[in-house]
Amino acid sequence: MEMNIGNKIRELRKKKGITQEQLASALGITSQAVSKWEMNTGYPDIAMLPVIAGYFCVSMDTLFNYDADKLEENIMNVLYNSRGGRPFEEAEKILLAGIADYPTGYILKRELLEWYAGEIRAHGRTDLVEKALELG
What string of H, E and C letters represents the secondary structure of 59-122? Predict the structure, then answer.
């Protein structure tokens, strides 16, 4: 998941029908700063984020394009895709990619730990013990 706050700021600015200069003036910054944000070559200072959200009358979640329902749906899709009789190596690859994309998706970590435990029990895969400990 990449952060596209600059794209969101541009979208909100255009929706409001203002120029980069007008936004910069309202926020007390330079138009070059706004341009850098919108081109994704720079980011607003963290203290500026609530000011930007307030100016556009949006939540911080909206500013960051965060949608909890969509996040949960994406995590559940990863979980579903790791199942269905897949071989261990394929399921592991899917779950590891999902964990990288959604590090707060603890259900994915639990699922992978269950896969590791199953492989250790069924096939004596002691090589997975270290992976399981790192994941845990």
Answer: CHHHHCCCCHHHHHHHHHHHHHHHCCCCCHHHHHHHHHHHHHHCCCCHHHHHHHHHHHHHHHHH
Q: How far apart are CA 3 and CA 39, in angstroms?
A: 12
Classified by CATH at the fold level, domain 5-63 comes out as 434 Repressor (Amino-terminal Domain) (1.10.260)
pLDDT in tens, 38-71: 998 999 999 999 999 999 999 998 898 888 888 8
Residue 3 pLDDT class (50, 70, 90 cuts): low
Residue 135 confidence (pLDDT) above 80: yes
132 by Cβ neighbours in 10 Å (0-12 / 13-18 / 19+) ranks as middle
Tokens representing residue 49 in the block: 């984020």
Q: Are 65 and 58 in contact (CB under 8 A)?
A: no
Q: Which structure tokens are listed for 89?
A: 């190596």
Any idea where the domains of the chain sit in the sequence? Answer: 5-63, 68-135
Reported as half-sphere exposure (CB side, CA atoms, 13 A), residue 96 has a value of 12
